Amino acid sequence: MEKTIIKIHVRNFGVMTAELYRDIAPRTVANFLHLVRTGFFEGLIFHRVIAGFMIQGGGYTEDFEDRETASIPGEFRANGYSKNTIMHKRGVLSMARTSNPNSASSQFFIMHADAPHLDGQYAGFGMLTDGFEVLDQIASVKTGRYGYFADVPREPIVIDRMKLVEE
Hints:
By secondary structure, the protein is mainly β. It has 2 helices and 10 strands; from the N terminus they run ββαβββββαβββ. The two termini are about 10 Å apart.
């Protein structure tokens, strides 16, 4: 399995390290790495946190300004892409999307716990290898509503930077 290593530096929480699987989800990983290399994620937040499920980020600033980028085809079984067999278990990175299977762009989520109902429905593309304590700390923050958003951390959880470590 081809692996690429990234580090996600989260302000006041620490660092999560993940490997990305190019051979399983090549377009997804290429898109994600382009965003990492261009600094797209710097200053964005984890805007949705659900303990026992997942944390989601990559689309909004601390002021909830939307940071958009182009959409990519969904690399998952329900969208006709059979090569992606990644199961949505604790630590898996996957792409968020709308009901349109080809609407993933920059928003991603990290599984806090196993969620087999997502298997084959979303494009898993990586796995945490280190920083599970950071994931657990983020998943335990107090959340509430913000506009039409639910499960929003009361204090912003900011991605200071993402760094490509090994390709």
